[in-house]
Here is the input.
Amino acid sequence: MDDEKWPAEDLARFVESLGHTAHVFHSGADALEGIKNRALELVISDVTMPGMSGLELVQQAFDLRLPVQFVLISGVEEVAQSINAMELGVLDFFTKPIDIAKLAEVIQEYDHRRRNETFAFSETGEAGLFSQQMRNLYRKLRKLQDFPQIPVLLQGETGTGKEVLARYLHHQNEHVTGAFIALNCSALTKELFEAELFGYEGGAFTGAERAGKPGKIALAAGGTLFLDEITELAPDLQAKLLRVIQERTYFPVGGTTERTVDTRFVCATNEHIEALVQRKAFREDLFYRLNVCQATIPPLRERTEEIGPLVWMFLRSFADEFDHEFTTVAPEALTLMERYPWPGNIREMRNVLTNIAIFEEGRELTVGHIRRHLTAPGSDGHDWESPRPAHAETVTLPVSEPFVLPDAPFDLEAFTRRVVAAAMEQFQGNKTQVAAHLGLTRTQLYGRYRGVSDLADAEE
Here is the structure.
């Protein structure tokens, strides 16, 4: 579909030449009705259309859980928005003019996967390793490789793999000529950070090397500069970083010659950065500049389907390194790991399995092995070994000051679903307003919203 009649009909004829049936719609609203009524499998949509845009069409189809895939066609100014839409499951997008040959490849690959039911894939060759949400995220990162000028913001809890994704974005790009350089924003003082980032001229400050020193921006020329814990930057350094990203130029410390930036900036944080912006603890203008393409990595406890494959991957990788003999995993051991909340996420899992491989013996990974290396049950107030009830009883939100935890045990997950359900009702289903009210991003809300839908279905 397209907002111009003839291009849309030309595209429909091209799709039909590939052996498929095509339907033409000239507005997003008509296309949405067509998706609902015709059970369409793949929609090729222009991003810019009168009324409902292509991005809004994708969002509505996603919210309604319609079983349809999208390929978007966008102008240059819509590239970032189209890339962000890939986290909702968009297969690909093309900038105008369309590369017809590549479009045909996408359609044929989709058709092949559909016919052979091979949608589960992984970037490491591990079939079924990643959840659908993570597969969409990797697809988004692959597309970002074609646009090195776009900064990327990675958000997620400690141990979710933010640097792993940053390195994937860099190393999987065959066009990258420079290095991957990482800098932890919390590990250096304000003065040292500026010298590390921008470099300095000889004699710029006491103790400076006579010949000067290139900064991380220069070392990452043609490559990627990964700034971890970006929210730890001092406000004045945030202002300087904003200028570098916007202007693509900088001065070394003590220098008078302006340098050009040829580096992709990838920033990461385990903080809720939107909340920091609201509290004036992080510059709003820098946040919006970094948030052009944002990826939120869900915690491991929200993608438990990955735990089994990850266990096998780590055990195989440790087999030669530690010469362990584990070749099987007891079902109850896997169940235990799926119930454990993994506060340290994948990093914690790797550490636990490393210790088991080094210090434990046997061929089968058992519950006993795991219990000896996990947090003791109940030490955090949560009996994570007990099965979670499908739905908990209604819980009243404690509002007293100081905060008083209810005496009776309750299911925090079910409690959260009810809070989201109440917010959805209050804001009449407007998820943007709901996310803002609850201090979440839309991406973080989607997982909880799906839970609310499931709850509503079960209660009908």
